[in-house]
Design brief:
By secondary structure, the chain is α+β, with helices and mostly antiparallel strands. Helices cover about 45% and strands about 15% of the residues. It has a five-stranded antiparallel beta sheet with strand order 6-5-4-7-8. A hairpin with a 4-residue loop joins strand 10 and strand 11. Helix 3 packs across helix 10. The longest helix has 20 residues. The radius of gyration is 32 Å and the shape is extended.
Length: about 575
């Protein structure tokens, strides 16, 4: 259920649906398929959704299991007083809406319309003094109507429990109507729908991360920015994959993003980096925008490595600078030729600047630059190469660092991750201390180190480092209420991977082995150099026997590509020693 007040006509979702031949208006989606879907809804189904919507909040949500059980005939529908069926039949005997409180107070205790509305307001705004003052009147007048005082007390208690969070039915109906419409969009246009949600959470990178995880669970790929596929905001390419919006990149304003997209839509995709430089509008797209696109991966599809944009020629000029100058000169010459006596732009010949070679950046350096601009790791994760260590040798996630009571139950606390933040300070007594943010695939946590501990480990606790920690969480001064996180050792994950994995065994079912698998493995292993001994254990499915073989002339580094290939194959697994 998504809380959307309105959807502006220029929203990216509008555009994406328009591309698919749909039309869209404010709040009402005029898709023929959706209208058919909504027309065919059974009234009872919609009524149940409205009730569940109203119940799903603190207090009322305690009644959800009973509501479901009663709806499905697994629990008898009961009414505290038989006459209450008139107003509670649609909600299976459970008070759900503010209107029901108003109607029942009039029916059971002869409240006037004004009194019942005052009760609703008092309960809704948690005005306990007013509610308490009205209770004796409810009990007294309800008893005079022949109802058991104990039952009236129970009814009043139920109302007090839920009414401060209760919806009126019209409010719940609006939410449910939106829920049905958004459910339809998510079911029939999943990529476009998720792209629209990301656009609405444009500036909230934590929300973007959650939505990306949702996309992953839905089987929708989320890709980084690309000048030939991205829109100003999040969009969907022809393969149904979501592309990061250009203006979501730090340093890329909306005018630059709009200019790039407009030129592409008008004259077709950019054929090369030089074609891009020749066509883009330099009044909107400046040198900084070029740099931002290069570092964030926006030019990756042109086959030029990101570091090459910063490689230098023999004059000491970066390729990025010569590229921008080339584009500006080309457009200037083009303009002059068009206005010359003989006209025509076909004769323009300006030599393109050579693309320099450049020393490759490390994976972490490249990804950290990407994260600085995009806010998250998109093209890969710097811990991918160490997933085998984090999954096989660690017993704690970084997000669990704050729960020292649980950590104290472990004999040794072993965790690993990448350092994403370091703060060095001094305590009130003048001792140095450090606060280190450590992140793994599951989340992040903070380590606090003081005095000599900080002095001992601060050299390795550097932002961007990938580390492996062995520690203990023990009582301070023998008092179980005060626990200390004591680090025993810190190593680089690369060192652990090289030294702790002596033997890597690939398990495979015999009926899965074919030429394709052999070829794929051979290609991967040729690019996976390391020190771990490689073994194959083949399970003969016919005889149910196992054959263990060692690849004597090949050792491996157990890279991410190898692990990923094995994990994606249903009849393969691995083990390390």
């Amino acid at each position: 259920i998504v809380d959307l007040d309105t959807i502006p006509i220029d929203d990216e979702l509008t555009y994406q649906l328009y591309q698919k031949g749909q039309t869209i208006g404010t709040f009402q989606f005029e898709s023929p398929g959706m209208q058919k879907y909504l027309r065919e809804l059974k009234p009872t189904v919609f009524e149940d959704l409205i009730a569940m919507n109203a119940l799903y909040r603190p207090g009322p949500m305690d009644y959800i299991p009973s509501f479901i059980a009663r709806k499905n005939g697994q629990e008898p529908i009961q009414y505290d007083i038989p006459c209450m069926e008139k107003y509670l039949k649609d909600t299976y005997g459970i008070t759900v809406y503010q209107e029901q409180v108003m109607l029942l107070s009039r029916q059971l205790a002869n409240f006037t319309r004004g009194e019942s509305d005052a009760l609703r307001k008092a309960m809704g705004k948690k005005k306990k003094a007013i509610v308490d003052a009205m209770k004796p009147k409810f009990i007294k007048q309800g008893t005079e109507n022949g109802h058991d005082p104990a039952v009236l007390e129970k009814i009043w208690g139920d109302w007090e429990k839920f009414a401060s969070y209760a919806f009126n039915k019209s409010h719940a109906t609006c939410y449910s109507w939106v829920a049905y419409q958004t459910a339809y969009l998510k079911a029939h246009y999943p990529a476009e729908y998720m792209a629209a949600l990301m656009t609405r959470r444009f500036a909230q990178i934590t929300e973007i991360t959650k939505l990306m995880e949702e996309c992953q669970s839905m089987g929708i790929k989320t890709l980084g920015p690309d000048v030939n596929e991205s829109y100003r905001v999040f969009g969907v390419n022809e393969h149904g994959e979501i592309r990061f919006g250009l203006s979501a990149i730090k340093g890329m304003g909306a005018p630059a993003a709009d200019a790039i997209v407009a030129e592409r839509l008008k004259n077709g995709p950019y054929k090369s980096i030089f074609d891009f430089a020749e066509r883009v509008d330099y009044s909107s797209v400046n040198r900084k925008a070029f740099e931002t696109l290069a570092l964030s991966g926006g030019f990756d599809s042109f086959g030029i490595r990101r570091e090459q944009f910063f490689g230098k020629n023999n004059k000491g000029e970066t390729f990025l600078d010569t590229l921008v100058r080339y584009g500006q000169l080309f457009q200037q010459e083009q303009h002059e030729a068009a206005n010359s006596l003989f006209g025509g732009t076909e004769a323009i010949e300006i030599a393109t600047p050579p693309i320099p070679d450049a020393e490759s950046w490390s994976t972490i350096e490249r990804l950290n630059r990407e994260r600085e601009l995009v806010g998250i790791y998109l093209s890969a994760h710097p811990l991918d190469e160490y997933s085998i260590i984090l999954n096989s040798l660690c017993n704690t996630h970084c997000s669990e660092l704050g729960d020292k009571q649980e950590l104290a139950k472990k004999e040794d606390v072993v965790l690993g991750g990448i350092i994403t933040g370091v703060k060095s300070k001094f305590t009130k007594t003048g001792k140095p201390c450090g606060f280190v943010t450590l992140e793994d695939f599951e989340g992040s946590g903070e380590l606090a180190l003081f005095g000599e501990d900080w002095g001992k480990w601060r050299g390795i606790m550097v932002e961007g480092s990938t580390i492996y920690i062995t520690a203990k969480c023990v009582s301070r001064y023998g008092n179980a209420n005060y626990l200390d996180f004591q680090i025993g050792n810190v190593e680089y994950l690369q060192t652990v991977k090289e030294n702790r994995i002596d033997r890597f065994t690939i398990n495979v079912e015999s009926d899965a082995i074919d030429e394709t698998m052999v070829s794929d493995l051979q290609t991967i292993l040729e690019n996976d150099e390391g020190k771990a001994q490689l073994f194959f254990q083949i399970h003969d499915v016919d005889s149910n026997t196992y054959l263990l073989m060692r690849a004597r002339e090949h050792t491996v580094g157990v890279g991410h590509a190898l692990i990923q290939y094995i994990e994606q194959h249903p009849k393969m697994s691995y083990q390390i020693n």
